[in-house]
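Attaching the record inline, Q. Sequence:
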Amino acid sequence: MHSKVATCAGKKNMFVTSLLITKHLAFTRATVLAKDTFADARQNDVQNLAEEMEDEIEHDRKALAKVFQRTPVLDSSTGFC
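Structure, as predicted:
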């Protein structure tokens, strides 16, 4: 009778251990998926910011080109426009 009780206790320990491992693996997977989701969102935010900055650079270049077209050029020999 004593060996059956020990066997039953051993099975319970294995069952509890397997449940804990399963729970840990599920938690780890959920954590990885959450981090991956946030990493993708962050990457998209950075990409959008970079594209906006590129658009601003182009806009600034065009604005500066217009300013320089209207600015008179100094004659190096006389120092006047």
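The first helix runs from residue 2 to 70. The chain has a mean pLDDT of 86.

More tomorrow.
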